[in-house]
Amino acid sequence: MRKEAVYLIFLLLLSNIVLAVGMSPAKLDVNFEPFMKKSFTFYVHHNQNYATNLTFYVAGELNKYVKLDKNSVLMDGPGEAQLTVSLILPSSLEKPGENVLRIGVRDNPLIVPEDVFLATAGVEAILTVNIPYPGKYAEARLETSNIEINEVENFKIYVKNLGREIIRVISGEVVVTDESENEVARIPVTYRGGIESGDEAFIQSRFDTKGLKIGSYNVAAILDYDGKKLTAENQFRIGDLVVELTNWTSVIKKGGIYPIDLWIMNLWGKPVENVYAEVVISRNGEIVSLLRSPSTNIKAFENQRLNVYWDTRTKDGIYDMEVVLKYAGKINTKTVSIEVRGTEINFNLILLVLIIILLAANVIWLTKRKRKK
To answer: How far apart are CA 46 and CA 263, in angstroms?
Structure first.
């Protein structure tokens, strides 16, 4: 009862805690250019019924190259304000890579209702200035997707030129390995379009998975761009419309109604709805119990638990447990073992209790003896 009351109080407090301001867009990127002059518009949203003074700020190593069109704005209640951020860059900047500027707004209420608790630490948007590296420098990412058995996988490779010099040719191969790190395929890739500084190239590689088993596979795009090496890695799964039993309760206590956990996994690349288990428990060919779990929906490649409840007021020993999974018009059956165990005798505890009883008896006996004397 006490926990329920605390939880209710927490919900009431949480319902009155508000984030009063927001900012959009949340993130912007720009590639460095010498003497660049560029302006960006951010929209600031105030969503509460009180007057406030919104103040703006800029943080980051490049903040001296930023100008705001206003430092603050007064608002009588809910509404939207615009903030224009001007970026004025020099001819060069020393630190290459991503330089992050944080454009922030703080809410400074003039009058706040007594029943409202404000989270007023401030909200920030990110403006990233990408400064090119000297010479040739690139980064890559590899995108994959989970597919069904015997489908074609499309590997998508994105190579971004983060250096000052043009990249002329990209060549290499995509290497696919299974879960045991055995090589499955090696696919050559080439790109000859040239990539200017700050631009990104897209390379697509098709892979026919016909004949491969369901499971997880590792992919590595091993690339060469104008004599420099680059690698991007990812994974993908091949699935089939199969839901299988992966683990289960193997030992259960005797003398009551106890749960049997059934762990199931969806090996398909799509969700499967209305999955349930019928369980037949038998011993020496004689059926002891028939059980059924509630239905559940299971996501693609998800591992989930089902429960059935068994009245174990029966004999100790090992029983056969046939688990029949039913889903999407299919049936997957697996027979495993489950053991019913009675309450174990804790001899150490019994010995300890006997010692305590003997000690107590000795104390009583010695006390009575002293009184007689």
So the answer is: 48
Cα separation of 199 and 158, whole Å?
10
CB atoms within 10 A of CB 349: 9
- Chain mean position to CA 362: 63
pTM flag (> 0.90): no
Q: Torsion-angle region of residue 351: left (phi > 0), alpha (psi -120 to 50) or beta?
A: alpha
Q: Is residue 354 part of a domain?
A: no
Q: Provide the domain limits for residue 41.
A: 2-131
- Domain presence at residue 361: no
Structural domain ending residue among the three candidates 105, 131, 157:
131
Q: Which two tokens stand for residue 353?
A: 């209790």
State whether 9 and 127 are in the same domain. Answer: yes
| Rounded-to-integer distance, Cα 224 and Cα 218, Å | 20
DSSP for 96-153, written as a single string: -EEEEEEEEEEEEESS--TT-EE--S-EEEEEEEEEPBSS--EEEEEE---EETTPEE
CATH number for the domain harbouring residue 196: 2.60.40.3880
Q: Distance between CA atoms of 165 and 306, rounded to whole angstroms?
A: 58
Structural domain count of the chain: 3
190 with 209, same domain: the answer is yes
For 219-237, write each residue's pLDDT tens digit: 999 999 999 999 999 999 9
Which residues are bridge partners to 107 per DSSP? 54
Q: pLDDT digit string (tens) for 1-43?
A: 444 444 444 344 434 445 578 899 999 999 999 999 999 999 9
Cβ-contact 153, 212 below 8 angstroms: no
Q: Are 84 and 68 in contact (CB under 8 A)?
A: yes
